[in-house]
Fold this sequence. Notes:
37% of the residues lie in helices and 21% in strands. It has helices spanning 2-12, 35-43, 47-54, 97-115, 129-140, 164-184, 192-203, 218-221, 225-231, 286-301, 346-357, 373-379, 391-404, 415-422, 440-449, 484-497; strands at residues 15-23, 31-33, 64-68, 76-84, 89-90, 95-96, 120-123, 155-158, 210-215, 239-246, 256-260, 262-266, 306-316, 327-330, 336-339, 364-369, 384-388, 408-410, 429-430, 457-461, 467-468, 478-479. Residues 1-20 form the signal peptide.
Amino acid sequence: MGRMVFLIVFYVCLQGLVLGVFEKDGEEGGLHLTEAAAGFDQTLSGKLSELLKISGPALKTGKSRIFYGIHKDFPCVAVVGLGKTSAGVCGSENWDTSKENIRQAVSAGCRLLQDLEVKHVEVDGCGDAQSAAEGAALGLFQYDQLKSKKKTKVTTQLHRSWGKLNSIGVVYAEGQNLARLLMEAPANHITPTAFANTIEEKLALHAERVTINKRFAWIEEQQMGAFLSVSKGSEEPPVFLELHYNGSPDSKQAPLLLVGKGITFDSGGISLKPSPSMDAMRADMGGAATVCASIVTAAALKLPVNIIGLAPLCENMPSGKATKPGDVVMARNGKTIQVDNTDAEGRLVLADALCYGHSFNPRAIVNVATLTGAMDVALGSAATGVFTNSDWLWEQLHKASVVTGDRVWRMPLFQHYTRQVTDSQLADLNNIGKYSRSGGACTAAAFLREFVTAPHWAHLDIAGVMSNKDEVPYLRKGMSGRPTRTLVEFAAGLAHDG
């Protein structure tokens, strides 16, 4: 008898509902139901409001409470706290608090229902359907492809028809989830070739707008000596992945150029990393993952903008063929580089990609890389560090990050740092700063600047935001896929501004 009751409960809980409630401003413990929650409450003759009053203290932001059996269509109803109704853009936090609260709350409700093995969840739009859709899709993602026991797969839809904004939110989140999938996968599954093939598959649906080049021998022909110096220690062949998304009706529109560091595994090379946490270096291609995922997302959204994506992909491994500390290599633009630390390899592969990227006369160049541990020390996981020679470009990136909640923070590009990388005993440049650890993120950016002549360039160091423990409540523990949504929002802003 007991077993039969359990099976009945399990069956009727296959469908759930997430509803939001706000805290009333200036009223301790007061709650304000969203439009969808109020409509649902009305069908129950006020039963939901009554249960909320008697079930405990008022729901705080991101907290949830579940009710069973109160509606025949939704046996499991999760009610989530959305914070103050007056929340909005916060200057001190540099994000839209209301949007972040919605993402956090909806994510919490969806996960709670997923843990109950609910198969389908309808989600309250909470007054911002895009943020609600993002919270649901980001919160439910988990990389368990290689496990025999997997999390319950949950389908979601908005409880009310919010039209286009819902689909946009889903596409934004799916873009970040693609980057998370690539970054989380083991390095023996995502080699340079496998990475390129995965992106090609994802863009196959948009072939009329996207062209893809996967190049091997071409790298040598282009005299990309810095890139090749990193790749030669590995048995895996390097790939230079080039994506062209032609979304603008004006075929002559100057493209946005996105460049991503694509080290699919970084052992440090001869300058071998310590073994603890080296497994996380499977995500050292996070720059390439976020850049490529943002182009996949732009294509899915049919953004009216032209984008070129470049991803130099390789492994950084120690072997008899690997670059040795003290070796000198030549980049595509003819500058020589003394490689005193083979673990400072990301700037080498980016140097050649940046030189090549200028040939497209781009409107702006944005490169993205898990470049330095120093960036993690400086900002942690709070924001991506941005080094840029352009106030206009900084403003565009910052504006986009306020909307997405995936923040950026401007860092200095002083000549003070340039002098530290141009003071080299054997070559034009040294791949590490004169004082090694001091200002490491800044000297890395100064090094990259030596390969940039464009007036609008930004370097995004994403080492600090590469993974998530519990800092971003709507992302599970693991690789974060940040800042994919900010890159997409930035590109959408450029498309809107023309």
